[in-house]
Amino acid sequence: MSNQKIRLGIAPIAWTNDDMPELGKENTFEQCISEMALAGFVGTEIGNKYPKDPEILRPYLDSRGLSVASAWFSAFLTTKPYEETETAFITHMNFLHAMGAKVIVVSEQGHSVQGQMKTSVFAEKPVFSEEEWKLLADGLERLGELAQAKGMAIVYHHHMGTGVQTTTEIDRLMTMTDPTKVSLLFDTGHLVFSGEDPIEIYQKYQERIKHIHFKDIREAAAKQVKETNQSFLSAVKSGVFTVPGDGMIDFAPIWHEIEKSGYSGWIVVEAEQDPAKANPFNYAVKARKYIRKITNI
């Protein structure tokens, strides 16, 4: 396999947090993308400070050698009429299509507790009813068909504090959806934080994985979050996430599986931290050096 099939990006959430905009409010859009490029990355996902007009955004990225890998989309298929999600999705999809992205990151936010500061991310995570599972699966397949018509794919983001977090929940969603319509995003950090085995998930779904997030976990912080029933946002503030090479995850065996599978697409470094405590540029450089060491990319 040629490593040229894999491109490395980094998410802007290390510079300014989308869920808690007060984290990194002092960091500008231009600083963020300049430091991404300077650290050696060639792609970005979309943050809340990015221009949403492709004609305005494109020159900023082109001059720094950056492409758009994807962007997060919040679906509410279990709690709102399908049409509301579809309308918002089409706008989001058209923007990403104009920016040349091939995948759309989708996460179901119906009943999600990830944005609630006081709600325990483990003890109070949502559990979907039979009807909600069907609404989710059917809705995702319809969104997947819309993406296909644009030559794109939706990649489902299993996520802490949502109804699709655990191995059992990922398995159920994958079983209930058509592989030609619904693909999977593989996020190392969310799997390890939840207590799942990332190697097992990758091996099982490698043919459906079309987007990858490399995120590391600080073991002591993760243990404290669980023991003290902290929320997802509180966990972020306490430093549970970090970049590859700075936490408990050994990415070498994960990379072995990725390389062996012939994966083609983006690997995006994503580590939401408080930039006042974890300088985004310094951590981006640390991640880039570590990834180069284990992958030779």
UniProtKB/TrEMBL annotation:
Cofactor: glutathione; Co(2+); Mn(2+)
InterPro entries xref list: IolE, IolE/MocC, IolE/XylAMocC-like, Xyl_isomerase-like_sf, Xyl_isomerase-like_TIM-brl
Lyase listed as a keyword: yes
Chemical reaction(s) catalysed: scyllo-inosose = 3D-3,5/4-trihydroxycyclohexane-1,2-dione + H2O
Record flagged with keyword Lyase: yes
An example Gene Ontology biological process: inositol catabolic process
NCBIfam families: myo_inos_iolE
Designated name of the protein: Inosose dehydratase
Lineage of source species: Bacteria, Bacillati, Bacillota, Bacilli, Lactobacillales
Name of the coding gene: iolE
